[in-house]
Write the structure tokens for this entry.
Amino acid sequence: MSVGDRTVTLGIWDTAGSERYEAMSRIYYRGAKAAIVCYDLTDSSSFERAKFWVKELRSLEEGCQIYLCGTKSDLLEEDRRRRRVDFHDVQDYADNIKAQLFETSSKTGQSVDELFQKVAEDYVSVAAFQVMTEDKGVDLGQKPNPYFYSCCHH
Ligand SMILES: Nc1nc2c(ncn2[C@@H]2O[C@H](COP(=O)(O)OP(=O)(O)OP(=O)(O)O)[C@@H](O)[C@H]2O)c(=O)[nH]1
């Protein structure tokens, strides 16, 4: 993917969503820089399962940026009454856990490109931030410069 003048290659692993495969899934997300945790917008229990995975990721991979992804948004376009997971509730939850939220459809492609673009852009920002702190170290007595500040709040 292109981010500015850089090309970023994403390695993507699709892990099983069932808690039953918890231990096996760990093998896949160990060391992951980003996780897209999906739930079905028409099924409230799937959002509960998504929260389980968020907890799991947060406890095992602190540095992993989380993206919440509501799926099947095309079904809501057809009939709004099919929505079972409230957008604002998830947005509040996303803010709490410092995640970003996308509502997507693999059928129509809605917001899919935007989601992966954001993953790549955030990765580049965080990598730039790490290079900067590795090169120069961090002077805790110094006021944060704007670049440093914006990276931390991505
Ligand atoms: N209408 C609609 N159906 C979808 C969409 N995405 C997936 N589906 C349907 O939902 C069902 C499950 O899709 P999967 O892609 O297997 O879901 P999954 O989350 O990968 O399932 P696991 O591998 O069991 O974790 C299939 O019948 C898909 O056709 C979507 O965006 N819109």
Summary: The CA atoms of residues 132 and 148 lie 9 Å apart. The first strand starts at residue 2 and ends at 3.
